[in-house]
Amino acid sequence: MRFGATILLAAMAVPTAASAQVAAVTPVPVIQGTRLDVVAEGEVTRTPDVATIGAGVVTQGATAGAAMAENATRMAATVAALRRAGVAERDIQTSSINLNPQYRYGENVPPVITGYQASNQVNVRFRDVKRAGAILDALVAQGANQINGPSFTVDKPDAALDEARAAAVARARARAELYAKAAGLSVKRILAISESGDTSPPPRPMTVMAMARSKEAADTSIEAGEQKLSVTLSVTFELQ
Predict the structure, then answer these.
(1) Using CA atoms, how far apart are residues 135 and 150, in angstroms rounded to an integer?
(2) Which stretch of 11-15, 150-154, 172-176, 207-211 has the lowest confidence by average pLDDT?
(3) CB 200 within 8 A of CB 230
């Protein structure tokens, strides 16, 4: 009796496993007509609403401790200026801290350490791009002597990218219709769509050393311009 029950349970388990295997199979579209692969790009433009700028302090000292101490003092004033300007804590992030010996080189003699250079830089996001120039001027006044950037981005690009995707599909279909008409055929259906691109990268920021500004100097101007966001799609059609 126990042996028979074991066989019955094993037999009952077989259809369940078979059903699970069948459910996992994905049907492959059968192409009866002509296959056409089209690559199309859709793009939109937006005005960037976030600027990212690196602000830093570079100091020199006879000893490593002296260079770091002066750097810490001036960097604290720089960060305090950012906070007074209304930049949120989440938008200020330390990106690098460096301490390097400075050498004097001579012919046929070992290099001699003459002092140390310390640097500290933070990345700052400005969500009000129009205020970025004035804030940078305030940073320089507080001791920042290295500026890196700016680079611009769109804070929430999803809606814009969806527009680009729709434009890419429309362009791919229009191109497929063109090929089909030229071949004496018509577009039957889309078999597959794959995405291989997204937003275009922002321009690479440049690093400049900030110079002391006179009272008569003009305020720093930051212009966001426009940024292209693009999506590239590969679309497979069936023609008949």
Answers:
(1) 13
(2) 207-211
(3) yes
Structure token digits, residue 124: 């700052």
Domain spanning 28-47+155-203+224-240, CATH architecture:
2-Layer Sandwich (3.30)
**Distance (Å, rounded) from C-alpha 125 to C-alpha 89?**
10
Torsional class of 236: left (φ above 0), alpha (ψ -120 to 50), beta (otherwise): beta
Phi and psi torsions of 20, nearest 5°: -65, -40
CATH, range 50-153: 3.30.70.2970
Per-domain boundaries in the chain: 28-47+155-203+224-240, 50-153
**85-144: per-residue pLDDT in tens?**
889 999 999 999 999 999 999 898 899 999 999 999 999 998 888 888 888 888 888 889
pLDDT at 237: 96
Closest C-alpha to 140, from 69, 78, 97: 78
Q: What is the average pLDDT score of the chain?
A: 82
Query: What pTM, to 2 d.p., does this model score?
Result: 0.64
3-state secondary structure string across the chain: CHHHHHHHHHHHHHHHHHHHHHHCCCCCCCCCCEEEEEEEEEEEEECCCEEEEEEEEEEEECCHHHHHHHHHHHHHHHHHHHHHCCCCHHHEEEEEEEEEEEEEEECCEEEEEEEEEEEEEEEEEECCHHHHHHHHHHHHHCCCCEEEEEEEECCCCHHHHHHHHHHHHHHHHHHHHHHHHHCCCCEEEEEEEEECCCECCCCCCCEEECCCCCCCCCCCCCCCCCEEEEEEEEEEEEEC
**Are the beta carbons of 56 and 120 closer than 8 angstroms?**
yes
